[in-house]
Design goal:
mainly alpha; 2 domains
Length: 139
Amino acid sequence: MAGIDRFDISIINDDFLATAKEQKTGNELKLELLRQILNNEIKVRSPNNLVKYRKLKEEVEKIIQGYHNHFFDSLIAMQKMRDLASSLQNEDKVQQSLGLTEDEEAFYEILAKHPSAIQDFELIKVIVKDVTRVIKKNA
């Protein structure tokens, strides 16, 4: 998109909300901007984990729908969008701390969150890396 591979979702933070609170005009436009940034981030990430990011996109749309249905005001909607952006950033940190790629993290998540999955998380990490390496090699 115009030379930008990815939008920086870190702009969706407390400072952004404080500015929105002070400048009450244009909050609907700000909310739509947040929606577009999050949806673009989801679009970039979704090929690696369709189910996860489809649910996240639904959450974004649910927030917008709640705002349009007057369940909450634009500031609350922006706070909810900030929370979603924060969860994405936290997931990135976890992925980095595990030392996994996005593809490996998607597979890891399936194994780690399945009730009957192996309980040895180091073993899961090794399996994930081996399986994704083999898949990429044979693709």
